[in-house]
Each structure stands twice: as C-alpha cells, then as structure tokens.
Amino acid sequence: MPPQPPMPPQPPMPPQPPMPDLPMPPPPKRAKVEAKHTLQPEAQWLAAHPGAATLKVKFNDEVLDIQVENLSLSVKVLKQLLSPKVGLAANKQKLQVDPIGFLKDNLSLAHYNLSEDSILSVGAKERGGRKK
What we know:
The chain is 14% helix and 20% strand. By secondary structure, it is of the alpha+beta class. It has a five-stranded mixed sheet with strand order 2-1-5-3-4, with helices on one face. A hairpin with a 2-residue loop joins strand 1 (53-59) and strand 2 (62-68). The termini are far apart. 14% of the residues are buried. The mean pLDDT is 85.
C-alpha cells in the first residue's frame, strides 16, 4: 500500500464570540437552616458527665424519673428500662428530645448529649395503614 500524502493544514478557526452570561439559578425553595443545636463528641460528653444520671421521661402527661448507670448506655437499653413503667414493649416505643428529634436505638445517650435536665418524650410507634 503506497503511503498517503500528508493532510493539508487546516485554516485557523474563527474566534468564537464570548459566551453570554448565564442567568443566576433560582433560589432554593426551602432555605437551608443552620443547626441551632450542635452536639459535642460522645467521648467529650462522657468525660464531662461521668457516673449515674437520672433522666426525666414524659409519658401520657406524667414525668417519670429513670435512673441509668451512665450515659454510655444505648437508647435501646433505655427503652428496655422504660418498658415495664410505660407498658409498651421496647420495640414499640419511640423516644424524642426537642432540639434533636427522634433517637436511634443503636446510638448512646452520650451521643445525643443527654443530661439530667433533658426531658425525653415517649410515644408508641405507629405503622402505616388506613387513616382514622
């Protein structure tokens, strides 16, 4: 096969006009809200709050005092302590603290920076279904 002749040089590209300024994107529908309540790291909270604590738990308009050995207990263990007092199985309870929201079972009380002046609310977990 004979070698192909080299390609002739291409003429230079004409200059492109500048891109018009794109309009600004619209503002988000819901503005991001900065966290008002920042949590301390768990280890730091435990160091500042060692030993036993008494937590206040609100259930059906009454406040119960629950004694815990330390704040490194998980939320799940706290629910098991509450179970005989509130008459709900641990897996049917949901715990809530005002500035934080609902507590997850696998995290500790120190993770949520709970202390003696925290008031937890206990409610029954409700599943989906027909509206009443």
